[in-house]
């Protein structure tokens, strides 16, 4: 068998022929009915061919990247001092069950003793950590108590890299390694991507004034965003953010590399039935992985989650990795003309909006 000419017996079909066939099958219905408009300002054809995406943007990955691996994340809520011991128990149970990167949503000021209780038996040398500070948390008090925890453990805080963000704000916490930009859930994905970029550029410029190196500043940038029931749009949104931030890096004179992206399944996509939510969560998780997330947090099917639903949420990720092998291929959506075109539309729209926002700032 001539493997290089498997299709030589088939004539090539032009876009015009495909369109004529489609209009015939529609039996008088307008072609426009097949257009997909997921949100205002975004319109897609029902199909795309190679010629349609000839100028597709490409995601810039580190040359060392060999797969599509991601960290398994899980969110924990720290609301009251009396619950710290229970949260620690849940955290240890999750780590034994395959958790790789805890997300701690801190909603009150913790003391050094509180951190010691919360992180008892948690080995930070082997896992990542993402901390979300609530609006009522004093940032300086957090830094002091968190530093005090490391001093008590006789560990050098500067040798660890944690993502720390302010809940309720799209701004980075300036005194830790890494800056986290949040892509909000708004009516326009294009606007949300642009706003996340301009907020992060503002943060970079503030730090730049202190004499920090551009590569060091940009190398510490990460983003957090959500995926919802709009499967293809969710994939394209993640891919677009990678391309967009690479363009920003180029603007600062740095190599074009995509940023780490944490993705959470959107609470807005969940309903009242937890079994339905499990299915929705699995689909959203697939879109996050195909899009190229670096950390994935699947919300439990019943909201904040009991032990069972938390375990199911983690196991979805284990299945995607260990049984579906979705961590083996870099940028698995590449070559899908439909997703490539959707990605391009988001990139072009968000970049134009970003430039507009920057210009208006003067």
Characterization of this structure:
- The protein has ten helices and ten strands.
- It is α/β, with parallel strands linked by helices.
- The protein has one domain (68-357): Methylmalonyl-CoA mutase (TIM Barrel), CATH 3.20.20.240.
- An eight-stranded parallel β-sheet has the order 6-5-4-3-10-9-8-7. A two-stranded antiparallel ribbon has the order 1-2.
- Strand 8, helix 7 and strand 9 form a beta-alpha-beta unit.
- Helix 3 packs across helix 4, helix 5 (189-208) packs parallel to helix 7 and helix 8 packs parallel to helix 9.
- The radius of gyration is 23 Å and the shape is globular.
- Mean pLDDT is 88; it is low at 168-175.
The CATH superfamily is Methylmalonyl-CoA mutase
Q: Could you say which structural class the secondary elements and strand pairing correspond to?
A: alpha/beta
CA-to-CA gap between the ends? 64 Å
Characterize the largest beta sheet: strand count, sense, and whether it forms a barrel: 8 strands, parallel
CATH-scheme architecture = Alpha-Beta Barrel
Which percent range describes the beta-strand content? 5-15%
CATH domain class name: Alpha Beta
Radius of gyration: 23 Å
Shape: globular
What low-confidence regions span 5 or more consecutive residues with pLDDT below 50?
168-175
Q: What's the arrangement of strands in the largest beta sheet?
A: 6-5-4-3-10-9-8-7
Number of helices: 10
Helical residue percent band: 40-55%
Number of β-strand runs: 10
- The run of helices and strands is HEEEHEHEHEEHHEHEHEHH
Q: Please, what is the average pLDDT?
A: 88
Number of domains: 1
Q: If you consult CATH, what is the topology?
A: TIM Barrel
């Amino acid at each position: 068998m001539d493997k290089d000419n498997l299709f030589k017996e088939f004539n090539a079909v032009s876009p015009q022929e495909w369109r004529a066939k489609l209009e015939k099958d529609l039996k008088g219905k307008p072609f426009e009915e097949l257009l997909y408009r997921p949100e205002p300002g975004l319109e897609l054809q029902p199909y795309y061919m190679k010629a349609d995406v000839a100028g597709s943007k490409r995601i810039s990955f580190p040359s060392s990247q060999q797969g599509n691996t991601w960290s398994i994340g899980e969110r924990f809520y720290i609301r009251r001092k009396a619950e710290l011991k229970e949260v620690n128990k849940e955290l240890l149970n999750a780590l034994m069950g395959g958790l790789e990167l805890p997300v701690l949503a801190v909603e009150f000021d913790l003391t050094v003793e509180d951190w010691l209780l919360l992180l008892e038996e948690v080995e930070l040398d082997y896992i990542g950590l993402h901390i979300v500070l609530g609006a009522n948390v004093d940032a300086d008090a957090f830094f002091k108590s968190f530093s005090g925890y490391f001093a008590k453990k006789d560990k050098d805080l500067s040798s660890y890299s944690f993502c720390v963000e302010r809940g309720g704000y799209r701004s980075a916490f300036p005194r830790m390694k890494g800056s986290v930009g949040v892509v909000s859930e708004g009516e326009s994905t294009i606007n949300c991507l642009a706003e996340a970029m301009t907020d992060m550029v503002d943060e970079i410029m503030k730090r730049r004034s202190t004499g920090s190196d551009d590569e060091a500043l940009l190398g510490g940038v990460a983003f957090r965003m959500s995926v919802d029931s709009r499967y293809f749009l969710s994939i394209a949104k993640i891919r677009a953010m990678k391309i967009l931030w690479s363009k920003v890096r180029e603007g600062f004179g740095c190599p074009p590399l995509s940023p780490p992206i944490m993705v959470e399944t959107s609470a807005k996509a969940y309903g009242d039935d937890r079994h339905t939510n499990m299915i929705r969560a699995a689909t959203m998780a697939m879109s996050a992985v195909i899009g190229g997330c670096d950390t994935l947090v699947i919300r439990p099917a019943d909201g904040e989650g009991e032990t069972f639903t938390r375990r199911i949420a983690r196991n979805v990720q284990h299945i995607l990795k260990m049984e579906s092998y979705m961590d083996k291929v870099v940028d698995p959506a590449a070559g899908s003309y439909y997703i490539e075109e959707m990605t391009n539309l988001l990139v072009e729209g968000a970049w134009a909006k970003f430039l507009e926002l920057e210009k208006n700032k003067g």
